[in-house]
Amino acid sequence: MALVPWPELVKRQFMEQQFALQHRHYVTHYPEADFWAIEHRHHGVSGNCYLLRTPPEHLIVHISLFPRARNGGLGSALIRQCQAQAMAQGCGVRLHVLQSNTGARRLYERLGFVAGGDEGAHLSMRWTPRPDTGPVS
Fold first, then answer.
1. Is-contact 124 94, C-beta < 8 A?
2. CB 74 within 8 A of CB 42
3. Residue 13 within any structural domain of the chain
4. Scanning 33, 36, 52, 66, which has its CA 20 to 30 A from the CA of 27?
């Protein structure tokens, strides 16, 4: 939104409206999913995550961090938490990432996710627990 020539109040209202619409969509289509509002002790409100915990694979429906909260280990910690919860239930984890989001894709690959099918603008990725090591550190 930094490049949009709107007053700050209008930008904020627009972003709040977009979040409300997105949230409504996720709770309508994934009513069993957990919603996590992410707050960091140094960065304050930092993002959100929707996690659907159903066998045989948990689904990270959505995960997003504000730019100021990225590249500090918070995203890795969130995903490792998802992996640990899935592994405790004998499940894997799957997610979808925009093909153009190379930074997120590299993060997922570092954490053991493997690219699967191409779904247009998105790429399906899966993580399967390894009983000998658990989530990638």
1. yes
2. no
3. no
4. 66
Number of domains observed in the structure of the chain? 1
Contact 33, 52 (CB under 8 A): yes
Judging by DSSP bridges, how do beta strands 92-98 and 114-119 pair with one another? unpaired
Structural domain harbouring 55: 32-127
Q: 20-74 pLDDT, tens per residue? A: 999 999 999 999 999 999 998 887 889 999 999 999 999 999 999 988 888 889 9
Instruction: Give the CATH number of the domain where residue 58 resides.
Output: 3.40.630.30
What's the CA gap between 46 and 39, in Å, rounded?
5
Is position 37 within any domain? Answer: yes
Confidence (pTM)? 0.85
Tokens 């053991």, residue? 112
Residue 8: inside a domain: no
